[in-house]
């Protein structure tokens, strides 16, 4: 335990030395509003994470410290194979702004064995950032999981349609993100995502119509179509 305490002190010292009050002001303008932050950039956090190395126990301690940087670092150094369902449920309930949600989903949650299960479960939950986490997981899984069959991602489309009327800003953007990401995976999923988007477009909801219009615009674009045909 003494070794962990020394590592924690070293990490905090690094974060304090990189503290940037101006960056904190800038983050607030983009909706990044943690209770406590040093204003350290993501590339710097990745560098610290690389120097620290993977360590599940240390990650759990860093998460409890509850600053933007220690929590993002926790997601970067944790070991996906050691993450439990209970840990994921505990952490997701504490998401209170979009960046921590997206970083944890990208760095850690999408690499766990519970990722697909939680994507479906959380996307139907009421809490704003738990729900966003569900769709963020869909987007990251579609982007990062190169081996899974199309069927896994196709399952997400019905949930995307079902939840497309949630007008909360951070939810609707994540629903749109997941839909676009699925449609950019390959030609088949592009067709399926566009079919879903057109169904969403028919829903009597301003939010649904925005999600559909934005997704169709990108997924039908010459750039995306050319890229998919050349895959």
Helix/strand order, N-terminal first:
HHHHHHHHHHHHHH
Q: What is the arithmetic mean of pLDDT?
A: 96
Principal-axes geometry comes out as elongated
Strand content: under 5%
Summarize the structure.
The protein has 2 domains: 1-78, no CATH class; 85-231, Serine Threonine Protein Phosphatase 5, Tetratricopeptide repeat (Alpha Horseshoe), CATH 1.25.40. It is built from 14 helices and no strands. The protein has helices at 2-17, 21-29, 42-52, 56-65, 68-77, 85-92, 98-107, 115-122, 128-144, 150-162, 169-183, 187-201, 206-219, 222-229.
Tell me what the structure shows:
With 231 residues, this protein is mainly alpha-helical. It has 2 domains: 1-78, no CATH class; 85-231, Serine Threonine Protein Phosphatase 5, Tetratricopeptide repeat, CATH 1.25.40. Helix content is 71%, strand content 0%. It is built from 14 helices and no strands. The protein has helices spanning 2-17, 21-29, 42-52, 56-65, 68-77, 85-92, 98-107, 115-122, 128-144, 150-162, 169-183, 187-201, 206-219, 222-229. The protein starts with a helix and ends with a helix. The model has no long low-confidence stretch (mean pLDDT 96).
